[in-house]
Amino acid sequence: MPYYCSVEAHPFDRYAAYTDLAALNAASEKPLRKSLRVNTLKTSVEAFKVWAKKEGWQLTPVPWCPEGFFVERADRSTALGKDLLHLLGHVYMQEAASMLPVALLDPQPGEKVLDMSAAPGSKTTQIAARMNGTGVVVANDVQEKRLQTLKSALYRSGVPNALLTRKQGQWFGTRMVERFDRVLCDAPCTAQGTVRKDASALEYSSERSIHGMAALQFSLLESAVHAAKVGGRIVYSTCTLTPEENEMVVSRILNKYCEQVTVLDVTGRSEIRNQRAEIRAQRSALHQALKDSMTVQRELQKTGNWSLTSDLYPFLRLWPQTYDTEGFFCAVLRKRLPTAERVFERPALFQERPLRRREQEKIGAFLTELYGTSFLHEGDQLFELDGQLLLSTEDVQDFPLLTKDYALGFPFAKLLKDGRCRLTHDLAIARGMMATSNCMEMKDEQLHELFAGRDTTCSKTIDGDVILQWQDLAIGVGLAQQGVLKNRISRWLVQLTSE
Q1: Are residues 138 and 260 in the same domain?
Q2: Which of 278, 352, 480, 484 sits a CA distance of 20 to 30 A from 138?
C-alpha cells in the first residue's frame, strides 16, 4: 500500500484496510492509562497490593504481565512517578504494552540474555527481575546520554547481574555469535504507537523515515539472530504501527533464513494445556493481537507487498484501541540451526577489578560487625573501580565479553582511607532491610524532615553510619552524631520528594 502523499492526509489513513480507522484515531487522542510493574527484586506483588490498598488505588492486572497493573487513583495531587515505592525502585513506571516483549522473551534464572537496545531501561530491569538477579543480562545502547539513563534505572532497581555495553547492535551479530540464550531486539522505530503520550511522534512518519528505519531494523534483527544460540529465543518488537517496520521486517528474516529460523505461536493454540494459570491467561489475551496482525498480512498479500505468499505468521499487533494501550508489535522467533560462523577470541578485561575472595570476606566481616549482615548473597561478587565498590555476581565475572564493559552491577560502598567502607544509597534501598543493628526506624515527622533536605533528631545511643528504615522500607543512609541525624539521603530523592 503506497504511503500517503497529500499534506492534508493523516498518517493513520493508510491503515483503513487494516483496522477500524475511527476507533484508531479516537483511541490515539485519549491519554494513556497509568500503569506500572512491580520490581520483584525488591518486593512482592502481594506486598505491593497491600500498599496500593492503603493508598486507595484501584488495580487492574495487565493481561500479559503478572507483575504489571493499570492504576486508577481518586487523589492525583501527587504524580504517580513521585510515589515512594517508585522512587525507591520497588515499582517501575512502565507502559503496559512495553511489558509484552519481555513476557514473550520469558527469560529464565541463570541464562545469558542480550537486550540490544536497552535504554532507558524498563525492559532490562524487567528481564533482570524475571531472572531473579542470576545469570547475565548484557544491556547495550550506543548513545552516552541514554546509557546514563539506563545505568540509573538499573541502580535504582537493584540489578546486580547487568553488564552495560556501548556498541552498535550489529556488533553482536559478528563478534558475539551464539553467545546468548535469549535476545531482545526492541528496535528503534518511527514510534507511531506512542502518539497517545507524544503527539509529535507522527512528525517522523514520512515514507523516507519509515523505509530508512526498516533497513536498520532488518540489520539489527539479523544480528540478534546471529547472537542467539541454536535453540535460543529472539523477540523482535517496536512501538510503531507501520507494516514496513513490523510484519515485513520479520518476514524478510524468515525468508532469508527459512531453514534456520522459525516463528513461534505464543498464543499457544496447540500447546495451551498443562501451562501455569498466568501463562494461559496471557496467551488467551493475545489471540486478538494475533488476529490483527494476520489481517494486516492478508492485506499485504492482496497488494503484492508480502514476500511470502502462502503462510500467515503468528505475529502480535497491538492497536491502541484493542487493549487501550500504546500501539505495539511483537514477533517471537526460535533459532533452529547456525546462521553465522562463531568467533573465538580472548575475552576483554573488565574495567572494574574483581575483588579476591579474601578481600571480599574482609569487607563482609566488617559490615557484619556493624550491621549484623554482610548484605551479600550467595554468588555475589564485588568489583572495585576508583575507590568505589560495585555489587555484581560471579556469573557476570565469568561471562566472556569481547569488549570492555561500560559498567556493571550497582554501587555497593565507598572505600575510605582508613580501610573502612561506607554503604551507598543504592545498596541501602536494595538490601537495607537485612540490617539488624545500626539501623533506625524513622517516625513520620523525621522522614518529612529528611525529605525536606534537613537533618533530624535521633537517639544519642546511636552513633556513626546508620541505615534508615520506615514501614518495612529502607530509605537510605544517615550519620548519627550526639543525637543529631545528618541527612545523607540521596539528593535526587530529596529533590523529588520536596517538589
Answers
A1: yes
A2: 278
- pLDDT of 429-467, one tens digit each? 999 999 999 999 999 999 999 999 999 999 888 899 999
Residues 185 and 117: their CA atoms lie apart, in Å, by 7
Average pLDDT in the chain: 92
What's the domain count of the chain?
2
| Last residue in a domain, options 335, 354, 381 | 335
Q: Domain containing 238 — which CATH number?
A: 3.40.50.150
Cβ-based burial of 337 (10 A; exposed 0-12, middle 13-18, buried ≥19): exposed
Q: How far is CA 60 from CA 44, 73, 74, 209, 212, in A?
A: 16, 12, 15, 37, 38
* CATH number of the domain residue 450 falls in: 3.10.450.720
Considering the domain architecture, whether residues 142 and 279 belong to the same structural domain is answered as yes
- Residue 25 inside a domain? The answer is no
Could you tell me if residue 371 is inside a domain? no
Spatial neighbors of 323 by CB under 8 A, at least 6 apart, are: 63, 96, 97, 285, 288, 289
**pTM of this structure:** 0.94
Q: Is the dihedral of CA 267, 323, 315, 103 positive or negative?
A: negative
Catalytic residue among 65, 239, 330, 458: 239
Q: Is 153 helix (H, G, I), strand (E, B) or coil?
A: helix
Give 300's contacts (C-beta < 8 A, 6+ positions apart): 1, 243, 247, 248, 306
Mark whether 318 and 190 lie in a shared domain. yes
Tens digits of residue pLDDT in 136-154:
999 999 999 999 999 999 9
Domain holding 139, by residue range, is: 96-335
pLDDT at 277: 57
pLDDT band of 416, cuts 50, 70, 90: very high
Q: Which residues contact 496 (CB under 8 A, 6 or more apart)?
A: 82, 87
Active site residue 439: no
